Amino acid sequence: MCGRFALFTPLDQLAKMVGATVPEQEVRPRYNVAPGTWIAAVHQTSETEAPIIGEMWWGYRPRWAQSTGNQPINARVETVATNAYFKSAFSKHRCLIPVDGWYEWIKDSKPKQPHYICRKDRGPLFFAGIFAERDDGSLGCAIVTEPGRGSAAEVHDRMPLILDGDSLEHWLAPDITDRETIKQMVRHIDASLIEHWPVSTKVNKPSEGQSEELINPA
Questions:
Q1: Is there a contact between 141 and 129 (Cβ–Cβ < 8 Å)?
Q2: What residues contact 112, with CB distance under 8 A and at least 6 apart?
Q3: Which one of 24, 39, 82, 114 has the minimum C-beta count within 10 Å?
Q4: Do 163 and 152 form a contact (C-beta atoms < 8 A)?
Q5: Residue 64: is it exposed, middle or buried by C-beta count within 10 angstroms (0-12/13-18/19+)?
């Protein structure tokens, strides 16, 4: 799964990587992003327009579900295309969630021991996501997850679906709606590019702040 991440690469740099329009305002670095907050996300409204980097609420709840509907933060790649709650978004409303790394916790550790997981070269990552318009008119998203791979599987049996560079354009493309076509055109990154290390248990509480020290090895 993915329930916490860090993003500190400037948005203008991320925009260049995905050919998106540069947002008017910069977003401050965040080292402990929690669900139920506004996060940066990339989406494309039409095939003739450039992608947009904007804010989405980390919590997916389509308008038709109204305010009483579930608000998941993750969607499993095995069922996202067929689950009634997600399949319309998978077909028509896919997005990218840029991050510099994410956190997972060692199972049954006491106190809960977080690990920071990122690229070995420290470059940004792009998680596959889906989004929908919420009942208040804002956009809400969920991160697509897959079974853990490589060193990430040492920490948790699930991980975000991280797309390789050649897949970003296809994932965003609003004209690609067929499940099998998406499956053939989209690939996750090589698991050998990922590493992790234990970090401070301060990560366990988002209220501890957004200090860069949170990603330092414990």
A1: yes
A2: 105, 106, 201, 204
A3: 24
A4: no
A5: exposed
Residue with more model confidence, 210 or 100: 100
Tens digits of per-residue pLDDT, 25-75?
777 899 999 999 999 999 999 888 999 999 999 999 999 998 888 999 999
> Which residues does 49 contact at the CB level (< 8 Å), separation at least 6?
none
Please report which helix (H) or strand (E) contains residue 41, including its range: strand 38-43
**Three-point CA angle 50, 22, 164, nearest 5°:** 65
* Of 56, 52, 18, 61, residue with least CA distance to 39: 56
Domain ranges of the chain: 5-215
Residue 29 burial (10 A CB sphere; 0-12, 13-18, 19+): middle
Whether residue 18 contacts residue 51, with contact meaning beta carbons closer than 8 Å, is answered with yes
Cα(128)–Cα(35) distance, integer angstroms: 16
CATH code of the domain occupying 5-215: 3.90.1680.10
CA distance 161 to 136: 28
Mean pLDDT of 176-184: 95
Helices (H), 72-116: 87-92
Give the max Cα distance, the chain. Answer: 52
